[in-house]
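Can anyone check this?
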Amino acid sequence: MNKTSLRVLAALIIMAGFLAFGISKVDMREAQSAIDGVEWWSMSTVVILYLATHVARSYRLQSLLAVPVSFSRLFSVNAIGFMAINVIPLRLGEAVRPYLLKEQDRVDLGVSVAAIVVERLFDFTMLLFMLLLVGFAVDMPSHNIEVGERSVDLIALGQRGAGIMLILGIVAVGVALSMGDRITGWFKKHGGFGRFVGEVLVGFQEAFGRLRAEPARGGIAFFCTAIVWITTIIAVKIALYSFGLPHGWDVALVAWTFTLTGMTFIPTPGFFGSYEACCAGALVLLGVATISQAMAFALVLHLGQFLYLSVLGLIFLVKEGVSLSGVVRSSLA
């Protein structure tokens, strides 16, 4: 068994552990009663909001790319890419979007990787802002949730993690931008991984050169990032309403901030397990749901997002005439 297989197996075991721990505390009759009481007509409107987040993500990527690519193409690439991120363990699906852009749109790997790295920096910035907002503006008895056998302060973990990732990302971008032609040329001459590093360095320089020349593009990208997460919080708020749970802005903000923190720093396959533990834990901490109601809510919300991304991705896989396994293998080769 190779290293990748071992990592996937370890991720699957961790996912199973999270789910088993969460379900072991659930009263199945109470959970079934919570699901039976859902207003599905209002819950279905959440799909429209998920579509809006996908539109915003596609516009964001278009703004950050240093070369022109049509919105319709980026909508398709994002559909397949985010499906891969959700179904492939260890976030290996992140490689799919750069691969598709290179193979089908002739976008250099460096250019697309640079744009996606900046996307992630914007996401970490927004996550850090939401964590600070929860920490200072929401009155909570505790920030600790039970993860397996441990009690974890998700706010502190998320603030440290997001802050470190943001700082490292900014430093990495600064280093990339400071590299001169001689250094990037040296990398590219060595082929293999060295050539890839050289392409990424050049891609960063081209991407940020375009942003300097057209600063409005950076503003549009950050605005799209805000739209992505605000729209998602609205979707969580509607889902809470559909379950008959308290659905104030503070509850929706805490539920999604905890969930996003878990997904970011505990990336189980499909985010199953970590998603449910963190989302349900937030609702229980706030005192708005029992563990059974909270787990039922988290499972339905997660399955809805997972199925939406899977169906959307499958539609565009068929449209593009490619297979997910083939794309993933090729992108990781």
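Reply from J.R.: I decoded it. The chain has one domain: 49-326.
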